[in-house]
Amino acid sequence: MADELSGRIRALLAARGEPWPGSIESFEVIASTNDRVKELARSGAAEWSVVVATHQTAGRGRQGSVWRSPPGNLALTVLLRPTLSPPQAGLIPLAAGVALRDALAEVGVETALKWPNDLLVADRKIAGILAEAAWGSEGMEGVALGIGVNLQLVREELPPELEGRTTSIAAETGQAADPARVAAAVLAHVSVWYHALSHKGPLRVIEAWRARSAPWWGRRVEVRLGSRVVRGVAKDIDERGALLLDAQDGGTLTVHSGEVRELRLEGN
To answer: What is the mean pLDDT of residues 39-61?
Structure first.
């Protein structure tokens, strides 16, 4: 079944007029698609090598958080070997977010981007991104760009802390999601936006990200940075993709990473 998934993804991409330039490995079960791609990168694999699975047992999000990917969902990682400047390379997760948002719209789900790398339907998470860079003596050697999409989630299988905070394509559309179709759409749009970042520059990606973001601008938010918490009014993102907050003292806070949530007044 795993080889069949690879073949279907490749065929769907070819039917779009976008033959995939790299290898596509697929698994029914894997510990982590990001870890597998990093193994391939160390062995000299070419850019655009892909690993995809429908069940991931040791998936993770940013800052070591767990990304739950039970059977029937989608975990996908692409190997990139950027020749971008450091500021441009730092925008790869935002470019991937734009791509993922457009791919989900293609399969019937409208989402909003939550800084820095989650996709939401209302306040419920449906997908996320984890970009892990490898560095060598000459700079960045590669990026394992990981993408997780909830194709279907069984509410009874969710831990209590995720109840009401996650959703899936099946839950939003009322139809089963085809892993091959979703993966092909994701890969096609990642290619488009990665090339946009490379050839049209950061501004193109930043403008696209803003246009697809959750409507939190001008609202109070809280960002957790490990054990530290900062609060302010969401203002914008800068040219490097950092979140800008208006602080209570009138200054501007520049946040490069963290877990952000909107703060709502009691009773709302």
So the answer is: 89
The CA distance from 182 to 72, in Å, is 12
Which residues of the chain does CATH 2.30.30.100 include? 220-262
Q: What is the CATH number of domain 220-262?
A: 2.30.30.100
Write out the residue limits of the CATH 3.30.930.10 domain(s) in the chain: 2-211
Overall pTM surpassing 0.85 (yes/no): yes
Beta strand segments in 118-225, E:
118-121, 124-136, 139-149, 220-225
Measured between alpha carbons, how far is 145 from 192 in angstroms, rounded to an integer?
A: 15
Q: How many Å apart are CA 262 and CA 231, to the nearest integer?
A: 10
Long-range CB contacts (within 8 A, 24+) of 207-210: 208/98, 209/94, 209/95, 209/97, 209/98, 209/113, 209/237, 209/241, 210/236, 210/237
In percent, the amount of the chain with pLDDT more than 90 equals 75
CA-based nearest residue to 194, from 87, 84, 74, 36: 84
247: left (phi over 0), alpha (psi -120 to 50) or beta: beta
Each residue's pLDDT tens digit, 110-149: 999 999 999 999 989 999 999 999 877 666 789 999 999 9
Cβ atoms of 236 and 246 within 8 Å: the answer is no
Question: Quick one: pLDDT band at residue 184, thresholds 50, 70, 90?
Answer: very high
Could you give the CA distance from residue 149 to residue 178 in angstroms, rounded to a whole number?
A: 12
Residue type, 189: H
**What class, spelled out in words, does domain 2-211 have in CATH?**
alpha beta
Helix (H, G, I), strand (E, B) or coil at 150: coil
Contact 79, 143 (CB under 8 A): yes
